[in-house]
Amino acid sequence: MVDTLVFIVAAAICLTGALGVILARNPVHSALMLVMTLFGIAVLFVAQEAHFLAAVQVIVYAGAIVVLFLFVIMLLGVDRAQNLELSILPIQRWAALVFAGGSLLLLVGLIVVVNEPVTGAEAMGGAASGDENVRLLARSLFSDHVYAFELTSLLLVIAVIGAVVLARKPKEIQSAVAEELGDN
Amino acid sequence: MEITTGWYLVLGALLFVIGGTGLLIRRNPLVMLMCVELMLNGVNLSFVAFARQLGDIGGQTVVFFVLVVAAAEVVVGLGLVVAILRRQPGATADDLSALRG
């Protein structure tokens, strides 16, 4: 009974937030609605005994990624309202409608039609609850998927270097600024 | 009413579709990146639901990697958006056709 209530409330929060992201005119409101969705999903992770992922979801998504979005919005000052009517090609709305209806029918239809319990090999450890969850996840991560884990460190280094290179001003501007400063 | 895995999958599918629709109807590159995050989260939810049902921690491991890749993607994507908007203030996705073949 409690499970059902938690799911319904969290799902309502998720869907409201998701619709808010795509319908809000102001990018800042979109970012805040995204936080709402991410929190709802964290609650659903807890309901499914994925405690570590719920914590990481809140820390990484709500704590880092959304703050990054808000920083960029603040830096660029693009927080003015966007006119949905003017900025969209007429055919695009129909394409979006067809995509939404089609994929929704396909996905939900598949889930309903194939409504038999999923069968598969049970893992040795199982997804146990409590502290066991973190232990199992760590064992899986550092034994079976250790190479992938090491590769993610490489990916993060590449992302950081790429961000630094992209954020640098082009050389001409830099030297122009330096000359101006020198003149003054 | 008991909440089965199917309900989680339906919710994941709904989030994915909402994100994809937003990607098509919004022209602001920042909001488009947020819609990509929505799609990723819908898929994450399905992974965790399957991990629970099958009693296999592997699904949660995949979600962990998706989180890392999403973080890297946002960093590079926002770097690109900042670089583009600095050169061309107020650009929307429609204005970024310089690489069109």
What do you see in this structure?
The complex is a heterodimer of chains A (184) and B (101). Chain A has 184 residues and is mainly α. Among the domains of chain A are: 1-84, NADH-ubiquinone/plastoquinone oxidoreductase chain 6, subunit NuoJ (Four Helix Bundle (Hemerythrin (Met), subunit A)); 145-184. Chain A has seven helices and no strands. In chain A, helix 1 runs antiparallel to helix 2 and helix 2 packs antiparallel against helix 3. Chain A is extended and about 75 Å long. The model of chain A has no long low-confidence stretch (mean pLDDT 82). Chain B is mainly α and 101 residues long. Chain B has a single domain (5-89), classed as Helix Hairpins (Orthogonal Bundle), CATH 1.10.287. Chain B has helices at 5-25, 29-54, 58-87. In chain B, helix 1 (5-25) runs antiparallel to helix 2 (29-54) and helix 2 packs antiparallel against helix 3 (58-87). Chain B is elongated. Chains A and B meet through helix 1, helix 2, helix 3, helix 4 and helix 5 of A and helix 1, helix 2 and helix 3 of B.
| String of helices and strands of chain A | HHHHHHH
Radius of gyration of chain B: 17 Å
Low-confidence residue ranges of chain A = none
The assigned structural class of chain A equals mainly alpha
**Class per helix and strand makeup of chain B:** mainly alpha
Main sheet properties of chain A = none
Could you describe the largest sheet of chain B, including whether it forms a barrel?
none
User: Which protein chains make the most extensive interface, counting residues with beta carbons within 8 Å of the other chain's beta carbons?
Assistant: A-B, 83 and 74 residues
Separation of the first and last Cα atoms of chain B:
54 Å
Order of helices and strands of chain B: HHH
Total domains of chain B: 1
Q: Estimate the strand proportion of chain B.
A: under 5%
Shape assignment of chain B:
elongated
